[in-house]
C-alpha cells in the first residue's frame, strides 16, 4: 500500500481543518445570533409582566380567582401568541398558567433568575426555567403584592412553544433553503479553489520527487538514466533541482576521475612489475653465471659480468627511488621550502653532474646565455630534481652528436626555463600523455628509463605553482618549458 503524497496529506488536512472551522464558526454565529435575539426580545418585553400586574385589577388586588386568572391568561395568549403566562407563589410553585392541561411538566421553577431580573443584578439576556420543557428561555417577571405582602410572581415566557414552532416553520421555508444552499455552494467552491492552489504549489515538489526517484533507480548516475527529467522553475524548488543535478554531475566527474586514476594505477603497477622484473632477472642471471663452480670464466669476463650486474642494481635502485618519490608526491604531504639563489649556478651544477653521461653518449651540453645571472626564490632541491630529470630524459632520447641546451629568458616578473634537445622528437598525438606515470612514447630510446621522470617533474612544478609546456617536432627534437617567479 502506497503512502499518501504531500498533496494528498495537505488536501485532507485542509479539508478537515476547514470543515472544523466552518462548524465552529457556524455554531458560534448561531449562538451569537440567538443571544442577540434573546437580548433584544427580553429588553423589549422587560416591563411586560409589571404592566400586566399594574393594569389588571384581577391581579393587582391580590385576591385570586385562579379559574378567572386562567381565563385571563388564555385571553392574553390569543392577543400575544408569542408569550406563555404563569403565576407562581413565593416559593416558585405554579398556581395557574395559560398552557393546556398535560403540557406543563414542571410544577415548580427556580426563582433565582426571576429575582435577578427584577432586581437587575445581572445583564440581559437572563434565562429562566420553561415549565413545558427542560430548556432555558428568556422571560419577563413582576412581583405581586397584597397589602405589602408578597403573594407570588407573574412569570411570562417570551417566545413560547407556539412561537418556536412558527419560527422553525419559517426557517424551513424555501427562501432559507435557497440561502443555505448558496452558502454550501460558496463553501464548496472555496474548498475547490484552495485544493487547486495546493495542487499548484505542491506540483514542483511532486516533480522533484519524481526526479529523485528516477535518479535513485539509476543508482545515482545521470549517465545511466534513460531520460533526465528536470524541474527548471525559477524558485526554491527549481534551485534545489539545479543543485541536485549539479551535485550528481560533479559526483559523476569525480567517479570517472577515480575510475581513470584506478585504471592508470593498475597499468602503472603492471609496467612497474615488468620494469622491476627485467633488471632482477638480468642481475640473477649474471650472478648465477659468475657463481657456477665450473664456469671457466677468466678474470676479465668476471669483471665484465660484475659490471653488468652493478648496472642492473643501479637501475633497480633508481626505479625504486622514483616509485617512492612519486608515491610521496601523490600523497600530498610534500612541503615547499623556498629560498633565494642564483639560477645560473644551479643549472651549471646540474650540467656538471651529467657531463660524463652526456660525454659517453656523444652529446653536447650548453647554457643560453652562457653568463646566466638570474635570481629566483623557490625550492632549490626540487628545482634541481626537475632539471636533472629533464636533462636525463633529453640524454636518453638524443642520438650521438646531438645537442642539449638550457635557455633562460625573462618576461615581466617571470623567468622561463627551456630544456631543448635535437633528439628523435615526440609524436603530436602523444604530447598530452607523456607526463603520465610510466608512459613510454612509441619511438622512445630506452636507455635505462623508468618512465617516471616526467611525471615527477609535473608533480613538483604543480607544487611550486608553475606550469610545464612541451613542443616537439618528430625527428628534430623537443622543448620542455616552465616558468619560475623571481
Characterize this entry briefly.
Helix content is 54%, strand content 16%.
Describe this structure in words.
- It is an enzyme of class 2 (transferase).
- It catalyses: ATP + protein L-histidine = ADP + protein N-phospho-L-histidine.
- InterPro entries: HATPase_C_sf, HATPase_dom, His_kinase_dom, HisK_dim/P_dom, HisK_dim/P_sf, Sig_transdc_His_kin-like_C.
- It holds the Pfam family HATPase_c.
- This protein is of the alpha+beta class and about 475 residues long.
- Helices cover about 55% and strands about 15% of the residues.
- The protein has twelve helices and twelve strands.
- The chain has helices spanning about 5-45, 50-55, 55-60, 65-80, 110-120, 160-170, 175-215, 235-290, 300-330, 345-360, 380-395, 455-465; strands at about 85-90, 95, 125-130, 135-145, 150-160, 340, 365-370, 375-380, 405-410, 415-420, 470-475, 475-485.
- The strands form three sheets. The chain has a five-stranded antiparallel beta sheet with strand order 2-1-5-4-3.
- A hairpin with a 2-residue loop joins β9 and β10.
- The protein is rod-shaped and about 165 Å long.
Write the layout of secondary structure elements.
Elements: H1 6-44, H2 48-55, H3 57-60, H4 66-79, E1 83-88, E2 94-97, H5 112-119, E3 127-129, E4 136-146, E5 149-158, H6 161-171, H7 174-217, H8 236-291, H9 299-330, E6 339-342, H10 343-361, E7 364-368, E8 375-378, H11 380-396, E9 403-411, E10 414-421, H12 453-463, E11 468-473, E12 477-485
Parallel strand pairs: 7-9
Antiparallel strand pairs: 1-2, 1-5, 3-4, 4-5, 6-8, 9-10, 10-12, 11-12
Helix pairs in contact: 1-7, 8-9, 9-12, 10-11, 11-12
Amino acid at each position: 500500500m502506497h503512502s499518501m503524497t504531500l498533496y494528498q496529506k495537505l488536501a485532507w488536512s485542509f479539508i478537515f481543518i476547514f470543515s472544523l472551522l466552518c462548524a465552529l464558526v457556524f455554531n458560534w454565529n448561531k449562538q451569537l445570533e440567538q443571544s442577540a435575539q434573546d437580548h433584544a426580545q427580553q429588553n423589549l418585553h422587560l416591563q411586560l409582566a409589571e404592566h400586566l400586574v399594574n393594569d389588571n385589577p384581577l391581579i393587582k388586588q391580590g385576591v385570586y380567582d385562579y379559574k378567572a386568572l386562567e381565563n385571563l391568561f388564555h385571553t392574553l395568549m390569543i392577543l400575544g401568541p408569542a408569550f406563555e403566562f404563569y403565576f407562581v407563589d413565593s416559593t416558585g410553585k405554579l398556581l395557574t398558567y395559560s398552557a393546556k392541561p398535560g403540557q406543563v411538566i414542571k410544577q415548580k421553577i427556580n426563582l433565582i433568575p426571576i429575582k435577578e431580573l427584577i432586581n437587575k443584578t445581572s445583564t440581559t439576556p437572563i434565562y429562566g426555567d420553561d415549565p413545558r420543557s427542560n430548556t432555558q428561555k428568556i422571560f419577563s417577571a413582576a412581583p405581586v403584592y397584597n397589602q405589602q405582602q408578597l403573594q407570588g410572581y407573574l412569570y411570562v415566557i417570551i417566545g413560547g412553544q407556539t412561537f418556536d414552532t412558527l419560527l422553525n416553520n419559517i426557517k424551513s421555508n424555501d427562501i432559507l433553503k435557497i440561502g443555505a444552499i448558496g452558502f454550501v455552494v460558496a463553501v464548496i467552491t472555496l474548498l475547490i479553489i484552495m485544493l487547486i492552489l495546493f495542487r499548484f504549489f505542491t506540483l514542483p515538489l511532486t516533480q522533484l520527487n519524481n526526479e529523485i526517484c528516477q535518479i535513485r533507480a539509476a543508482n545515482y548516475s545521470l549517465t545511466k538514466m534513460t531520460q533526465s527529467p528536470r524541474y527548471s522553475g525559477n524558485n526554491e524548488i527549481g534551485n534545489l533541482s539545479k543543485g541536485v543535478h549539479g551535485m550528481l554531475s560533479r559526483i559523476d566527474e569525480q567517479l570517472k576521475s577515480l575510475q581513470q586514476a584506478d585504471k592508470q594505477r593498475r597499468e602503472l603497477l603492471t609496467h612497474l612489475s615488468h620494469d622491476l622484473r627485467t633488471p632482477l632477472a638480468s642481475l640473477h642471471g649474471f650472478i648465477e653465471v659468475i657463481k657456477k663452480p665450473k664456469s671457466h670464466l677468466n678474470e676479465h669476463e668476471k669483471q665484465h659480468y660484475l659490471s653488468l650486474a652493478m648496472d642492473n642494481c643501479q637501475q633497480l635502485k633508481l626505479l625504486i627511488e622514483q616509485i617512492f618519490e612519486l608515491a610521496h608526491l601523490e600523497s600530498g604531504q610534500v612541503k615547499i621550502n623556498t629560498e633565494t639563489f642564483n639560477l645560473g649556478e644551479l643549472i651549471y651544477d646540474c650540467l656538471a653532474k651529467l657531463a660524463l653521461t652526456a660525454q659517453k653518449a656523444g652529446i653536447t651540453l650548453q647554457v643560453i646565455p652562457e653568463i646566466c645571472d638570474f635570481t629566483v626564490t623557490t625550492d632549490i632541491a626540487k628545482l634541481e630534481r626537475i632539471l636533472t630529470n629533464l636533462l636525463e630524459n633529453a640524454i636518453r632520447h638524443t642520438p650521438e652528436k646531438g645537442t642539449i641546451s638550457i635557455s633562460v629568458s625573462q618576461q615581466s616578473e617571470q623567468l622561463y626555463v627551456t630544456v631543448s634537445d635535437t633528439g628523435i622528437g615526440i609524436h603530436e598525438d602523444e604530447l598530452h600523455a607523456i607526463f603520465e606515470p610510466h608512459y613510454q612514447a612509441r619511438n622512445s630510446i630506452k636507455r635505462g628509463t623508468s618512465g617516471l621522470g616526467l611525471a615527477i617533474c609535473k608533480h613538483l612544478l604543480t607544487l611550486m605553482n608553475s606550469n610545464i609546456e612541451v613542443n616537439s617536432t618528430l625527428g628534430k627534437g623537443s622543448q620542455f618549458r616552465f616558468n619560475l617567479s623571481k
